[in-house]
Write a structure and sequence with these properties.
The chain is mainly alpha-helical. The protein is built from 14 helices and eight strands. It has a two-stranded antiparallel sheet. The protein has a two-stranded antiparallel sheet with strand order 3-6. It starts with a helix and ends with a helix.
């Protein structure tokens, strides 16, 4: 492999590993804040126990997410120095804001939340977790706006051999970024809700803390269903935006080779990139693809043959990742709908087949997130900034294949170790269950 391919593999490995932690942090921060709010407003100690238990899993995940995210920013200077030189004026601004504002606030408020149980009133303590949640979500927004600029560059001008910022407000209001943010944020909420349902189901199968985990399951089921529905709707708008701004990515997602109007959607499809066609095309729904792409049954869709071969994304992995993401998203909607139905019954703990299914469903949203990331990043290739800068021109000129291979090996070993630690800690504390004695916290916070 050459330097470019190894650098791509390295960034993909670190990025996808970091993305294991981010969605859970986004979702658990909000759900923990919601639980603590219910405790403060109702005085029900069960909500306090839920806040402490699920909040502990949130903190474990947050800590490891921070560690894995820092290395990604180093790579911009190490492996991708030409990219940093070319677009640093634009890409650097949101990164700086994220690091100095959102991440700073996020860390401060989480620190107050951790150590403030015995120091401040319960209302003030509740406000800190909400502020930490908002900062966490703002952090995600800024990073996704930066990524959106790579997908749909706006507010810049090419000058002196580089892209320079012309209008920062245009970058911040990039519609591609806001749709992507909505899609990603809600998928994080769904992921956290599925984790809560899975852990709760595991305890219910063993008869542990029935009331505690039934209430947790019921709350998570509603969050999972609402979030999954909005993810699906935002995904439709996101696909429309991609069809408009990244037609080669959209063509790869659907393995569409010819430019046509009124394009149907084949429910059974298998790409054959070598022959620039599809090996299998079966069960076609007339005009469906044009309708999905532009909300117009007679709209024209550009085919892959419209683009030179060297400017086409990798069709098969983009196509398969897109379908796996959609398939898992559909499963999540259906599973959470059934979860709401069963959680309203008094005998949820007796639905053992469904509880077992929900335990094994914990990885589903994680996989959907990873496949979604692959669609976004593989579909953009060979561009690192779509239509502006190619990936091959963005890599550092001074690094060697050996250097990148060794650092890739180092990251793989280190991240493998961190991943094992994360799984060990999450499983350990999830299996341990909630604390039973909260008298100290309640007594002190009673001063509110």
């Amino acid at each position: 492999m050459d330097v470019v391919t190894l650098s791509q593999l390295q960034f993909a490995a670190t990025g996808m590993f970091h993305w294991i932690f981010v969605p859970l942090t986004l979702g658990l921060s909000i759900l923990t804040a919601w639980m603590e709010t219910k405790y403060v407003t109702t005085g029900d100690e069960m909500w306090l126990r839920m806040t402490k238990f699920w909040g502990k899993l949130f903190l474990i995940n947050f800590a490891l997410g921070v560690v894995t995210g820092i290395t990604m920013e180093f790579q911009f200077g190490m492996n991708w120095s030409e990219y940093s030189r070319y677009v640093g004026d634009i890409f650097g601004a949101p990164l700086a804001i994220e690091a100095t504002l959102a991440f700073f606030l996020e860390s401060v408020f989480i620190g107050v939340w951790i150590f403030g149980w015995n120091k401040i009133s319960k209302k003030a303590h509740m406000i800190t977790i909400w502020l930490a949640s908002v900062a966490t979500n703002v952090s995600a927004l800024i990073i996704l706006l930066a990524n959106a600029w790579m997908q749909k560059p706006v507010g810049y001008v090419l000058r002196n051999g580089r892209a320079e910022m012309e209008n920062f407000l245009t970058v911040l209001t990039n519609p591609y970024g806001w749709i992507k943010f909505t899609h990603t944020l809600l998928s994080g909420y769904a992921l956290a809700a599925f984790l809560i349902m899975g852990v709760s189901a595991w305890h219910l199968l063993r008869g542990n803390e029935i009331d505690f985990f039934k209430r947790s399951f019921k709350l998570a089921a509603v969050w999972a269903f609402v979030a999954s529905i909005i993810v699906g709707l935002s995904g439709d708008f996101h696909a429309v935006e991609i069809a408009k701004t990244q037609p080669s990515k959209f063509a790869a997602m659907e393995s569409q080779w010819e430019t046509k109007r009124g394009v149907g959607m084949n429910l059974l499809l298998l790409p054959d990139p070598a022959r620039e066609c599809n090996a299998i095309e079966q069960i076609c729904v007339p005009n469906a693809l044009s309708m999905l792409a532009f909300h117009d049954p007679n709209a024209e869709i550009k085919g892959l043959k419209e683009f030179p071969k060297e400017l086409r994304p990798m069709v098969t992995p983009t196509f398969l990742s897109f379908r796996l993401m959609v398939g898992l998203g559909t499963f999540m909607i259906l599973a959470s709908l059934v979860a709401i139905f069963f959680s309203r019954k008094q005998n949820l703990e007796k639905r053992r087949w469904f509880l077992t299914l929900m335990v094994f469903a914990i990885p589903a949203p994680y996989l959907a997130e990873q496949f979604g990331w692959l669609v976004a990043e593989l579909g953009r290739q060979p561009w690192i900034v779509y239509g502006v800068l190619k990936t091959a021109d963005a890599v550092s000129k001074s690094i060697t294949t050996t250097q990148v291979a060794l650092s890739l090996l180092g990251f793989t070993v280190l991240y493998g170790l961190l991943g094992a630690i994360d799984i060990f800690l999450l499983v350990k504390y999830a299996k341990k269950g909630p604390d039973k004695d909260l008298s100290t916290i309640i007594n002190v916070q009673g001063r509110a």
